[in-house]
Amino acid sequence: MRTQFLRFAVAGAIGFLVDAGVLYVALAIGLGAYASRAVSFLCAAFTTWQINRRLTFEVERTRSFWREWLRYQTAMSLGGVCNYGTYVVALLFLPKVTIAPLIAVGAGSFAGMFVNFAFAKLWVFRVQH
What is the 3-class SS of 44-109, one letter each residue? Predict the structure, then answer.
């Protein structure tokens, strides 16, 4: 399980880069801090799903691609509530500087990581016997 968690963390780090990158692009085009975060979260979730299904968890290839994506999105949304809530609270308390959204994304990602790992391992990518 330690190896899986480390791979999950690497996928999360890559997801964080996607999340932050998309967030700043969305902010630059004027989408707003909260809508931008929703878009960046979806992009990051798609990225981490692809990495986790290939490298972190052994997945039966007989599963429906779309059903797995829906399960993953549902599971990550539960962790995403922790993630987004932490992001919002961090934005409220951090000074209004350019780096504040990045710090808030990092805090949110950390807050949701453990919830996301548990749901991914125990529900989305659970080994069928």
Answer: HHHHHHHHHHHHHCCCCCCCCHHHHHHHHHHHHHHHHHHHHHHHHHHHHHCCCCCCHHHHHHHHHH
